Predict the 3D structure of the following.
Amino acid sequence: MSALEALWLGIVQGLTEFFPVSSSGHLVIFQDLLGVDSEGGLVFEIAVHVATLVAILVYYRSRIAELIVGVLALEKASIEFVLKLGIGTVPAVAVGLFGRDFVEQQFRNPILVGWALIATGVIVATTRWTTPRAHRTSIPWSAAFWIGSAQALAIFPGISRSGSTVAMALALGLAPAVAAEFSFLLGTIAIAGAAVLMLPDLSSAPPALLSAVTVGSIAALFSGLAAIALFVRMLRAGTFQYFAIWAWLAGGLFLAWRLL
């Protein structure tokens, strides 16, 4: 993987991580279109995800600081919110621990990614009907688990993490801003956990791959900061469901290119 390819893939990751169109799916597609060797692909995937994790921490720094202070002060609301994040993390942890080899194999199956993107479009399209009824500002314990289950499904490339978790939250009646915040903060735990699991692979990666990872990560960080700000604005404007068209076009055109 050249530095230019890593730069391009990092930008793709940063822009698509927060839009409900599956960053992992787009990475697999662009790696396939660019002819990038799939060896080390999952290591690069985790590295650029960590960069977008940093973008989340920067964007929600005030809320995170509020939660930390609240937990240290034994504030009930803050403690409950953090515990709900923990509950929502359980499904993804289970998939990561017991299904890692199977998930890694899916990154080498571009055809499956195309179909998964089409499924993502269907998931995102449902928000057209659920958003008008979503007004809850408190997150039930059961909702935290179901949102986490949606996140676990998004471990597979082509299924959008932000799309599936926000769509699930809206379907459960959570207000858009609350849904986005919980989705992104929940993602920080899952991404950090995945990074820890991948540390042995990263430490044994060849120098050329490490160089590409550095370039891609920096690109993902800055493009991710821009994307998350734009995403929140669009969610407030009620245009979230239109990303379904993007996912359908990306998945459909890629399948047509591979199969025809």
The chain has 13 helices and no strands.
